[in-house]
Amino acid sequence: MFCVVAASDGPQHPTSPHRARGADSGQAWLELAPDYERARTKEDSLDRLVEWPAQRDILGDVTGRSVLDLGCGNGGKLSELVRDGATDSVGVDISGNFLSAQLPGLELIQGDLSELDSVPGLAGRTFERILFLQSFGYAKDPVRTLQVARGMLADDGFILLTRTQPIRYALERAAKNGTSLGEEYFSTAQFSYVSGWNDEIALTKRPYTISDLINVFSAAGLWIESATEPQLSEDARRRYPHKQAWMNKNLGILIFKLRPHPGP
After folding, report:
1. Which CATH number does the domain 25-259 belong to among 1.10.10.10, 3.40.50.150, 3.40.50.2000, 1.10.340.30?
2. CB 37 within 8 Å of CB 61
3. Cα separation of 119 and 193, whole Å?
4. Which of 71, 85, 132, 247 sits between 20 and 30 A of 3, alpha carbons compared?
5. Which residue, 81, 94, 65, is CA-closest to 4?
6. Each residue of 38-75: b (16+ CB within 10 Å) or e?
7. Chain segment 79-124, per-residue pLDDT in tens
8. Residue 33: per-residue pLDDT
9. β-strand 106-110 against 127-133: which pairing, if any?
């Protein structure tokens, strides 16, 4: 259902065969990971201004809690959580492009989130918080990936999962193709676009709707405790009007707090 998650921090452009090339999801992330890390550290990064603050607020006090970050990038966000008191925490990313200095209580593992049950170091472990921060779209079988993650949740644990607002892609395709929002939102045809992090890489994905996401969660035995669509603060709107203009057009991300249904 989902092939590749797109950059949520910049405009996408029509694919140009002269400067873009397709890649499967794993290979694409291997090449895009360094570009993503550079992009999110910018002062006006939407990850810095909107996404991470909202994610951090939902996670709450992590003191003494174990965290599993699936698709952790270089491990920077998980490192911050460990500095805030998280313990026995693990980050998994297919790129292996990790921070050189690792904190006590933090382990970073190169592995594929599509094959969680074979990632070394995870067997038999449970975690109180499991994160899919714009990484879930890389899962080859999203239901299976969530089922495995659900099995790693400790009692009273939850999954924090984010996805780009799907209406954004429908708007872009409608403008590009001269079609309507409804036609593109409900289309099942694959589409390609150039990554906002690196204009040498084109990504291909299948569209999804909000109901697709809800159905995937349900099929994996999860229910939505809460959902939010974070926006810029008033101060950030004044300081970065170009980012507010981008958010007005592209809507941003969806954040879901997921808990397992009782029973098997």
Report:
1. 3.40.50.150
2. no
3. 30
4. 247
5. 94
6. ebbeeeebbbbbbbbebbeebbeebeebbbbbbbbbbb
7. 999 999 999 999 999 988 898 877 999 999 999 999 999 998 899 9
8. 64
9. unpaired
Q: What tokens does 140 get? A: 């080859």
Taking phi over 0 as left and psi of -120 to 50 as alpha, with beta for the rest, 88 belongs to left
pLDDT in tens, 162-196: 999 999 989 989 999 999 999 999 999 888 777 66
Structural domain boundaries in the chain: 25-259
Closest CA to 88 of 125, 132, 131: 125
**Single-letter residue type at 261:** H
Q: How many residues does the chain have?
A: 264
Q: Give the type of residue at 27.
A: Q
Q: For residue 46, give both structure tokens.
A: 């939407």
